[in-house]
Structure to design on (438 residues):
């Protein structure tokens, strides 16, 4: 029996109507009124606007299925003998400071060594003015390490390659190219270069290198990253791959590394050494990818938070280095990072022009950060360190929540130090040729 095709159905509908009954239901969707097909265009009234679709927040964009780590786990992982530290000793482990002198018997070196032994500080940051020769810096670093052998200090340096090399070839370091030049070659070539760099730093007694830079070279006119070739490139995958080679080479030599500068400094138009920077107008979400991916792959021993503000990541006008939203909210809870967060140098103008050292370190701890870097100014002694320790200890006595954050930060740092000791290869035995000696 012939089926009647309703008037106005198009040709596709007529084919459906002619189909067996069992197929008819499947063809209903093809039945478009002929008038609509003929008109093709839908007429919109004047002033019509589509409904707005909200763009996902930065946190929503990077939300994952990872489970944030309970910060108390670092404490329970800590060997029992390190849990009896006083609150003042814990606070000291949170501080990594600059020092004066180039030889073990110099006053500035002796003061730092004494501060390490008494847990007034947890480590030192080496600058160019501390290095006179390979032999001298090796002796200085050895004296620091011997001051607290059970919980060795962080002995850190900024040794990226290129123009950012605290230790020069004449002082025992290889001539490592800048990151941009490294990325122009193969990953095997990069590994060889970073193996040599890490081995030299380990020989000189360093156990932390504040690199690699994982900022994207997204702004070729950037005055502090692209200008000096400090980035591996503008592509997040390339940056991640080469930064991973950097981290792995150093870890094999017993040296911890720090990804920097969270949440990304590559698109900025200014230098955070000279003042606070708001990234909101220039930053793109691609800049977060190396941080996210290296955290997920376990390549982030430490992570350095920059003096950078970013809407959707930090609180208004608070840099990431001091921001609870950035450190606890984003790094800890969104990216599930449970490692050590290091502040960029708190003596930089972006911070020091607004907060004194006590205020800045307090804010960093409140935010969930761990290591506070602090360059002591000329003529500035350890009275600054004592003021920080006293203020934070008093705050901890008044606030159980703040005391818990100090304890958790101390535990993360202490565990990292023990890991660094475990990663350090056993010293190679060497035979000394005594022929020709008197």
């Amino acid at each position: 029996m012939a089926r009647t095709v309703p008037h106005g159905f198009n040709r596709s509908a007529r084919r459906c109507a002619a189909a067996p009954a069992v197929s008819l239901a499947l063809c209903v969707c093809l039945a478009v009124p002929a008038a609509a097909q003929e008109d093709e265009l839908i007429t919109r009234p004047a002033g019509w606007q589509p409904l707005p679709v909200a763009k996902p927040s930065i946190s929503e964009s990077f939300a994952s299925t990872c489970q944030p780590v309970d910060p108390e786990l670092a404490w329970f992982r800590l060997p029992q003998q390190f849990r009896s530290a006083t609150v003042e000793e814990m606070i000291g482990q949170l501080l990594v400071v600059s020092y004066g002198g180039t030889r073990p018997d110099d006053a500035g070196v002796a003061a730092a060594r004494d501060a390490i032994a008494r847990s007034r500080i947890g480590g030192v940051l080496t600058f160019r003015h501390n290095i006179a020769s390979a032999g001298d810096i090796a002796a200085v670093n050895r004296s620091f390490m011997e001051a607290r052998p059970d919980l060795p200090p962080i002995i850190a340096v900024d040794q990226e390659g290129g123009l950012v090399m605290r230790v020069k070839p004449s002082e025992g370091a290889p001539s490592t190219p800048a990151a941009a030049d490294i990325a122009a070659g193969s990953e095997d070539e990069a590994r060889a270069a970073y193996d040599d760099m890490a081995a030299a730093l380990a020989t000189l007694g360093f156990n932390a290198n504040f690199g690699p830079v994982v900022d994207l070279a997204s702004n070729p006119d950037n005055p502090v990253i692209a200008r000096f070739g400090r980035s591996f490139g503008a592509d997040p995958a390339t940056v991640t791959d080469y930064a991973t080679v950097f981290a792995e080479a150093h870890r094999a030599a017993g040296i911890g590394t720090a990804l920097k500068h969270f949440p990304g400094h590559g698109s900025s138009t200014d230098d955070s050494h000279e003042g606070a920077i708001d990234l909101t107008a220039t930053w793109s979400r691609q800049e977060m990818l190396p941080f996210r991916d290296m955290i997920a792959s376990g390549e982030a021993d430490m992570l350095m938070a920059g003096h950078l503000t970013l809407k959707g990541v930090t609180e208004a006008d608070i840099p990431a280095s001091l921001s609870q939203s950035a450190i606890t909210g984003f790094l800890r809870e969104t990216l599930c990072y449970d490692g050590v967060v290091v502040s960029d140098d708190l003596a930089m103008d972006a911070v020091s022009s607004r907060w004194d050292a006590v205020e800045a370190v307090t804010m960093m701890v409140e935010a969930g950060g761990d290591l506070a870097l602090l360059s002591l100014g000329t003529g500035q002694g350890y009275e600054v360190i004592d003021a920080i320790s006293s203020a934070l200890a008093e705050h901890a006595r008044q606030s159980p929540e703040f005391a818990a954050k100090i304890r958790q930060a101390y535990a993360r740092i202490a565990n990292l130090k023990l890991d660094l000791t475990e990663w350090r290869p056993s010293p190679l035995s060497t035979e000394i040729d005594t022929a020709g000696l008197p």
